[in-house]
Amino acid sequence: MEKNDPTKNNGSRPKGGLITMPFIFSNEICEKLAVVGFNTNMISYLTTQLHMPLTKAANTLTNFGGTASLTPLLGAFISDACVGRFWTITVASIIYQIGMTSLTLSAILPQLRPPPCTGEQVCQQATAGQLGILYGSLLLGALGSGGIRPCVVAFGADQFDETDPKQTTKTWKYFNWYYFVMGASMLLAVTVLVYIQDNVGWGWGLGIPTIAMFLSIITFVGGYPLYRHMDPAGSPFTRLIQVCVSALKKRKLAMVSDPNLLYRNEEIDASISLGGKLVHTQQMTFFDKAAIVTEEDIVKPGETPNLWRLNTVHRVEELKSVIRMGPIWASGILLITAYAQQNTFSLEQAKTMDRHLTKSFEIPAGSMTVFTMVSMLSTIALYDLVLVRIFRRYTGLDRGITFLHRMGIGFVISVLASLVAGFMEVKRKEAALAHGLQDKANAIIPISVFWLVPQYSLHGIAEAFMSIGHLEFFYDQAPESMRSSATALFWTSISLGNYVSTLLVSVIHKFSAGADGSNWLPDNNLNKGKLEYFYWLLTVLQVVNLVYYICCAKLYTYKPIQIHSKDNESEDGVELGTKV
Hints:
It holds the Pfam family PTR2. This protein has 18 helices and 6 strands. By secondary structure, the protein is an all-alpha fold. The strands form 3 sheets. A two-stranded antiparallel ribbon has the order 1-2. Strands 3-6 form a two-stranded antiparallel sheet. Strands 4-5 form a two-stranded parallel sheet.
């Protein structure tokens, strides 16, 4: 349900539209500056400032990324069920601000981190108290991200009225704009902020995005009168559980012969079907039993039935839509597992290579993801300005190709990225061997870091196709009242991808260890490892995942929806009071 009339602003101008984008994007830009500015170079912070072993630092990084991508489920639930997207974003931003301030202080105050290493002295690792402050700050950041990430995407898309023919193409374009702006802020983070962290200090490197986050909160709240606001429609998870419970209670009932006999009630569904009601499908018919009307379900006219016993077709189809999205959602996990290595092992590769652009200027290792960002931004611009028009001629679709095809292209390119990364590692180690540096962990190998550009760039191109397609898929195919929750599924796939990376690294590190101290993923010297085997294992896993995705995409049934219309009332269904 929308607050009053969400399309009007005190009678002066329509609410929403392009004018709201600077206010919304400012919040997303600062959140990404904070996350990426620290996350990209975090492994350097953990190893050089807190003196963690490499594998422990890599797992800490992926665990943090996983947690930060899991909390959007909580943020989405609060948004859809309780307070709406605007207030969820606002409160989450304040929590994020507190976490960033604490993190900045931990980088500034010497007592909050171990002393620097001196000479041949064994480096002192961070104490439990110092790690506690770090993890507490990261947890607040993760909670803040959980409220911002799913809601900013959906809140921005809400500003375009899908029932207005003039705005029908703007929603899918918005996802390109959103990812482009997000990518641009990430590009700024991996260049300017990483340079400041490496050459000026972590205090300034974290302080700048902390200040930017504070300003973004003020800007976002300042746009309040311009936004289209959607009231929360109640807990979507409760509705899904109610359908499951209702179907279980009626599991022994015979299915009705005519789907039109199933219960429908537009009055109780009004707040969750603003864009149209979901129509009955023949899949997963077990859940249809939740909409069978029995004697126990009959109540007086105007009263609401017990939703733990009887649900409408629309609510049943909400559950079916979520279940149908599951296999496609799961397919995105391994792509994130592969992508996550850019901030761990790919960064460690870069640290051992010649990074000089000129004799006096050296690229920070953490800034190598600039090539990922540039290729992603270039691909998004090329897709939006050129490829869509070409594809449209053959498909007739305004968006060029379906989001499922777009995701498939991303999967294929991601496979190539991991394959190339393995060959680049072979070349790097050959150069180390040729110069007698294979036993020197911190030696700079005389091979240009630009050999790593192909793997970084391919990951960026893959993300431009797969991740945007994934976001479009969740927003388009989710029931309207569950769009924040559905968008959170995008972030949970990122979360699980990071956790899978942690598990994979831990398992390989444990079982590839040899009696002579050899290891595929050594803690101190990549030159003695077999990192290429790890990359090629990821390649094989992604090929299997690609086959799985193709099968899921071919079997996928798109969400069936009937737009509200006075002339379109053919599926009225059974009214309460009629028993079967």
